[in-house]
Task: inverse folding
C-alpha cells in the first residue's frame, strides 16, 4: 500500500492505493458547511448537497440515476457538517468507469430538477417537524443543548431550521452551488484498487469547476455560561 499527496494544484487531497482491493472509495470534500448558510435560509448548504446526491444530472433524471447504480451494488451519499460537506462514493472496480462518470456528473453537472427540489425540501422539513420534534426526544435535546452552548456563534444552529428551509427557493440552491462549488473549496480523496490514470482524470474533471478562493468563517469564542442556566424545550401537544 502506498500513500502520497496530490501534486501541487488547487485540487488537493489524499491518495491511498491498495492494488489488491477490489473496491474503490471516493471522498470529495467541500470546505463549506452549516456555518456558511445564508442568514434566514439556514439549511441551504445541506439542501444543495442533497440535491446533488439525490438528484439527477443534465443527462439523467434521478430515477434513471438510481436505476443505473442499483446493479453495480455501489453507493453514494453526503455528510453535511458544521465546516465541511463530504460526498462519499464506493464501487467495485468492475464498474469503476461507469460509476465514476456518473459520480462526477452528479457533482459537476447537477440537474436541479424542480421535482427533486420539492421532494428533497419536503424530506428535510419533515425530518425536523415530524421526526426530530415528534419522535426523537434525545436528538431534540442534543440539538437544543448545542444551540444554547453556541449562542451567537456560527455553530449555534442545528444545521437547518424549518423556517430557513421554507424560505429557500430552487434559484437559491443554484446560486449557492455556483458560489460554493469552486476549485478553492474542493479536496479530492481516493482509496482502494483504483488504476493510476484515475487520479489525473479526477483532477482534470474537477479542475473545470470555477476558480475560487477559500475564505474561512471567523469563529469567535463561545459565550461563557452565567452561573447555572436551564433551558426548557416545549413540544407542541
Result:
Amino acid at each position: 500500500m502506498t500513500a502520497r499527496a496530490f501534486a501541487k494544484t488547487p485540487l488537493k487531497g489524499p491518495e491511498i492505493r491498495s492494488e489488491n482491493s477490489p473496491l474503490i472509495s471516493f471522498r470529495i470534500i467541500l470546505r463549506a458547511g452549516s456555518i456558511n448558510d445564508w442568514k434566514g435560509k439556514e439549511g441551504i448548504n445541506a439542501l444543495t448537497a442533497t440535491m446533488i446526491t439525490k438528484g439527477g444530472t443534465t443527462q439523467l433524471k434521478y430515477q434513471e440515476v438510481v436505476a443505473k447504480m442499483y446493479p453495480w451494488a455501489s453507493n453514494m451519499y453526503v455528510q453535511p457538517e458544521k465546516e465541511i460537506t463530504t460526498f462519499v462514493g464506493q464501487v467495485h472496480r468492475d464498474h469503476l468507469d461507469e460509476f465514476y462518470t456518473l459520480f462526477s456528473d452528479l457533482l459537476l453537472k447537477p440537474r436541479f430538477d424542480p421535482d427533486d427540489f420539492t421532494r428533497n425540501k419536503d424530506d428535510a422539513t419533515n425530518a425536523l417537524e415530524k421526526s426530530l420534534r415528534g419522535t426523537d426526544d434525545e436528538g431534540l435535546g442534543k440539538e437544543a443543548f448545542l444551540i444554547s452552548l453556541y449562542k451567537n456563534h456560527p455553530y449555534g444552529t442545528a444545521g437547518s431550521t424549518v423556517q430557513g428551509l421554507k424560505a429557500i427557493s430552487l434559484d437559491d440552491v443554484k446560486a449557492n452551488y455556483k458560489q460554493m462549488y469552486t476549485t478553492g473549496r474542493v479536496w479530492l480523496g481516493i482509496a482502494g484498487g483504483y488504476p493510476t490514470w484515475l487520479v489525473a482524470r479526477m483532477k482534470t474533471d474537477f479542475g473545470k469547476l470555477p476558480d475560487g478562493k477559500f475564505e474561512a468563517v471567523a469563529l469567535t469564542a463561545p459565550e461563557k455560561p452565567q452561573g447555572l442556566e436551564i433551558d426548557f424545550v416545549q413540544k407542541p401537544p
In short: The CA atoms of residues 132 and 138 lie 9 Å apart.
